Amino acid sequence: MAATACLAAALAACLVVPAWAAGPDAAPMAPDFVLRSTAGKNIRLSEHRSEVVALAFVASWCGACREGLPEWRRLQEEFAGDGLRLIAVSFDSRPEAAAGMADAAGGAFPVLLDPEGEAGRLYAIGRLPAVVLVDREGRLRIQHRDGRQASATEIRREIRGLLDE
Amino acid sequence: MRNTLYWMMAMWLAGATAVTGVRAGELPDAQAMDQEVQQLKDEVLDLNRELFMLEEELLFPSSTQVSVFVSMDVGEYFSLDSVQLTLDGKAVGKYLYTEREVEALHRGGVHRLYIGNLRSGTHELVATFTGQGTHERDYRRGATLQFEKGIGAKYVELAISDRGSKMQPDFTVREWE
Which end of chain B is more exposed for a tag (fewer CB within 10 A), N or C? Predict the structure, then answer.
């Protein structure tokens, strides 16, 4: 029993030290890009330094993406004052389809048009929905790219963590 | 089993000691360390700048270098959205301008749109400007320049200005001497 307890403590320490060693400075810079929004404005990612940016990759033919829009709107409204900037990147080939998603979002955040997948290639997005979080210094900190819709609780916790840094 | 356990405990203690050692060393020499770190940062910035200049000189030697710049006047008659560049019939660049970048151009900023290499001889540059004109109408206008590339670097400016007499934007392409 004592041996098992010591072993567990040693393993726990091994997990703690690496977490301390891999701080935000080790995270790579988020690839920069500029795309046009459905509202006709050109938006460049790097112009949002000092804000925490949540890049949500979506498409009108992605059911989970459409279902997640209300929650994204709530997150943007809740954390806007703390410096959260939510940006959706749509892979729709038809601008009107992307505009439909912007309407569904109630104009709470911009929806960028990426029919050729330029930003998608930069972030190696293969499945939807996908979301990446960029910290205030422009570093790519958290990625959900496995096609699974991350829970609202998980996303909220991650965003809060980056905002509090 | 016992030897394995002792080995793991020793490793854990070594790690804990390293962490504690770093934290203990910070306190007395914190100020000296801050200065040293600041000095290192300055040296890194200087080195980065030198490396950037060297890289540019290696990739685009002055004998073949051609640079294209964009400048903009007040912009009352034209709101710039993007510029597309074609050199000798080949598309070499397209740039979307954000509101902040357009504001910087209005304030006198000059944007280097393209840098590349060209052999000596006659070349043709075509710039296509896209944006909104008066009454928020979509506007698309092209400008062409044929120039001689000599031995030295070639600098070309794409200038957008307001032509008050006709209440229209004016697009000119000119070489810097």
Answer: C
